[in-house]
Hints:
By secondary structure, this protein is an alpha+beta fold. The chain is built from seven helices and 18 strands. It has a six-stranded mixed beta sheet with strand order 1-2-6-3-7-17, with helices on both faces. It has a four-stranded antiparallel beta sheet with strand order 12-13-9-14, covered by helices on one side. Strand 1 and strand 2 form a beta hairpin. Helix 1 crosses helix 3. The longest helix has 21 residues. The protein is elongated.
Amino acid sequence: MPRDPIALARQLIDIPSVTGEEGPHGAFLQRVLTSLGFTIEEQEIEAGRKNLFATAGGVPRVILCSHLDTVPPFFPSSETPREIHGRGACDTKGIIAAMVDAGEQLIGDGAKDFAFLFVVGEETDSIGAKRANDHFAGRGSEIVIVGEPTDSRYVRATKGALTARIEFPGVPAHSAYPERGDSAIRKLARAIEAIYEADWGSDDDLGQGIPNVGVVRGGEKANVIAAHAEADCIFRLIGPVAAAHAQLETLTAAHGGSIARWYGNDPVRMMVPAGEDSIVAGFNTDAPHLFSLGRPILFGPGSILDAHGESEKIGKSEIIAASETYRKLVLGLLEGTIRL
């Protein structure tokens, strides 16, 4: 009797797994997969944080992949007749439940040449995917099906991303004598305005490049000219990350600042099964960091608009339907009846 994916989704949601604390979630999922007959290989990323690679017994030509971590804050599962609510409901514990249910059915179908890869750290720096890309390369994988909430539609492309911290030095002084100081906050404010006024490009398919300054810090007290200010930014890119970095560097330097640290990736073009409709997604995923493992397909139940929110949810019928989509997709790829 197949495992109930709705019950499994709630079990997964009820295990807190904010980025950096994925251990208990991974341990539970390992027990579930072992009970279904999968062979587990752990990859330790750091103490208490492990990727899981679970093979069905053959050459893992197709990999079903998603991430173990969630954004904060944790809140447990609840349900209505049609939906499951809770942190990670759609991003991505409902998706993992659908994948596991599909995997159990695939074993029943006699399929062996597939595997699961569940990674840590997607919500911050994709460290799990980056390490897995090196560690599990050369195992025979050809396709990686990445699970993210895409409204159960295939994604043909995702925007790139540049995440950066910009910093500005100042000279402290008494606020009654501003001529004796140099405000880092004023420099930062001018740079932020320039960032939002700049052209971050456009593309007929990917749309507009989008800047966002999400966190600002600076100063010590209201009566002191600020000696330091910084901001954390993320840019949704339609072109190369190197070009966006160079533009941000120029804008920041023009106002007396510098880029303290950054990471990012270019836009990614995904594979779409022949004949299927597809969309473009503005959000980022682990897909850019998994190319050593195969060509990417991006698909999953749930809406990205519900992810990270205070009422995160996923439809029960979406989980059930996605399980069948994953099953048919893996079988079709293995048997050669689905072409990309």
